[in-house]
Amino acid sequence: MLAAAGAVNAAEAARRSPRSGPVALGGTGGTLLVTLDPRSPTPQRLGVFRVPGEPVPITAELDLLHLDPLAVAEGAWTDFTAALNAAGAARHLLPVVGAIAAIDAGELTGLPGIAEFLLLREIREAATSGRWQRVIVDLSGTDHFTLLRAPTVLAAATDRLWPRPLRMAESAEKPALAPLAAAIDAIHRDCMDLAELLTDPSITAAHLVVSGGERGTQTAPDQLAITEVMGLPLRSTLVNAGPGGLPTEAVSEAVRATLGRDAGSSISIRDVPRQETEPARLSQLRRLGITWPAPNGRPRGSAAARVDDVGGDGLEAEYELRWQQSLVDPQELALGRSGDDLLVTVSGFRQPVRLPSVLRRCRVSGADWDGRQLVVRFAPDPAVWPQRPTARAGTVETPPEPDRSRPSPDSEENDHR
């Protein structure tokens, strides 16, 4: 309901000022509202039929696009496995190809990140099509954090399944594998592009809706901590009283305490009071007065992480990776490594954080939290850290002896004076 209300007001603002909006994609303007919940009442409230996969006009400035996650995943996966089957020789050269191609589209829900990745890719295609100036995605009815984490998880999975250096080497030796390697590279690039898009504060703004009451008071700090470790550019938090009129004051106070100095400045906080009747028409949605703040260009959480060189040289060097991070229970913080990623577990949610290049040959040596910033310390890993060759103690380096098989320029044989 709140996403639809915000989309209606965004479309109204676009009608009054056609050039308004955070992102100008070069199209005709207007707003697109995307829903993912198969049971979402949004189409009925907006007075249109549900047409999965096709934008439906609501007003001159507002369209509704309903995406069926299973249908999107099955359609895209069918096309991908058809390409794998077309590379017949590759099935024998790389057994995993046959295993992947044998997975039925209906079994995608068991593969980590694939269905969610395909859904996000569909949303990105709509957002970059040039038809709309602003795209609002309603994630209600979904496991929203798992959905937004999917590109990072899938990128790591493809690297473990068939690492890129190995892909390049094997496709060079066996040309039949080249189409498959290109397809995997394309998926990996899409994953990285989506991950960057979701954390880019210049074009993306995240908005968190939490429920009122005791449940909201308990869960709001955890959800805010997860947005930070994911690096999501949070711009507003709405505390919804819901149809039951749950109290919102305590939840708002918990949100302010967690956000600290960001509360009310870079991140707005608003209580949504109980509505006497459920909004069922455009005019009723408009009267809710919901607005979504535009992107402000300020990275947040792990997306704003910085690396400090704290001293030392070679294997004695020390580095620190730090970012602003709230922790509901510091005892629940857990750190690990997986390839080039730092695995950070906050409030029971594990997020891969891609390490800067200087830290990928280091190991985690410790971590601290000062109540607002998470500081992870790194030390060079001797097994992979590049070392300068040095002369062994007790030896004297001497220049190589001249090649006496050839006459010297000053020898008698070459003396033409």
TrEMBL record:
Biased composition (Basic and acidic residues): 401-417
Region (Disordered), start-end ranges: 383-417
ArsA HSP20-like domain boundaries: 317-378
InterPro entries on file: ArsA_HSP20-like, HSP20-like_chaperone, P-loop_NTPase
One Pfam family linked to the record: ArsA_HSP20
Gene3D superfamilies: 2.60.40.790, P-loop containing nucleotide triphosphate hydrolases (3.40.50.300)
Recorded family membership: Belongs to the arsA ATPase family.
Record's protein name: Putative anion-transporting ATPase
